[in-house]
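Moderator note: this is an archived Q&A kept for reference. The question asked for a predicted structure of one protein chain; the sequence and the answer are reproduced below.
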Amino acid sequence: MFSFMTEKTKEKMKRTTGKIINDPVLGFISLPFPILYDLLQHPWLLRLARIRQLGLSMLVYPGNTHSRLLHSLGAMHLTRKAIETLRGKGIRIEDEEAEATLCAVLLHDIGHGPFSHALEGLLVKDMSHEEITLLLMRKLNEEMNGALELAIKIFRDAYPRHFLHQLISSQLDMDRLDYLVRDSFFSGVREGGIGAERLIDMLNVHDDRLVVDAKGLYSVENFLIARRLMYWQVYLHKTDVAAETMLRHVTRRAQALARSGAELFGSPHLQRFLKQEISRDQIENDKDVLADFCLIDDNDVISALKVWNAHEDFTLRTLASGIVDRRLFKVKVSTEREILEAEEEAMQNEYKERFRLTTDEARLLTHCGKVSSRTYKVGEENILIYDKSGNITELSSMSDIVNTNMLKHDTAKYYLCYYKAKKA
């Protein structure tokens, strides 16, 4: 049971053995260090249980209701498996390094706001969830008297052993392995299935870089193809794009109304982010602002939408009821952005006249944008193949499948989301 740890750590672990989580995708997940259990009890991490991993994707795939917390635990579990594999191949990884790496991956999504990526940049201006994650990790480190110092260094790639950071963030990291397996399972899109265990078994380290043993080449190819399919079938599904566009627009409308003095329903912590434009400086330096952010989850937004559903403001009411009752924006897809932009302008003029809206209000009933995906980025933490002779080769130099426009270059689509009004 304790093969993951040295004798010294086995003694430390006696008080927490038996802490096991039953994951529907990966099976039993254990917590091999006491600090992991302590983190799991913290309200900031528990909050991720109330944030959906895939935003509003359940409006397309009803099974997609799994949480960020479940994903974080899964990524931690796979990272533990990877460390066990590397140790079995003679790679020295100290217990302190293993503990810190698992802490870093468990906390890697702690900075997400409601519905994950959907509202990023709207609640806190010009600050990504990765930056908020690092801020929260530093605050937790203060609470825990420096216990997360090494975890933060590994998370920031500021620790000399770069391959530990690559387990958390790279083109073949444990985060991606878990979300592909998990999202494929819950959505029912079997094309996204990958052999995560096989990929982990093929991992190795050479010159402080994470590499894949040559016999794992086909597993890597399958991983990248599955990732491409999941992006276009699930993550960038046109109906999901429409739903998340509506969520962003209804939030913008609520903020505009609240900041003009209108009274809107909302939990006290959500109200702050509606009434005020929260800056990076505020969330970094005002503990009350940070505390409110760490209380917001999907439930705050859903309860607000259900009340805004009957608001007197036409734009707010239309967008909120559209999400709650699944009357989503229609979507047109084209390779010609100019055609869609011309249609969008005509629609906005129609809405202004028909519903007596301002230009800003009418703009919230449409959105012309671009979705794109590149499956493999040459030059960005390349996936390296390691043969028995000790030679290292970049993946696209060995794989005909990867060395194609389909996987190496951006695939883009232009879309127009728009409100389809009922006929008078």
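Archived answer notes: The beta strands are 20-23, 27-30, 203-206, 209-213, 330-334, 366-373, 384-386, 392-394, 411-418.
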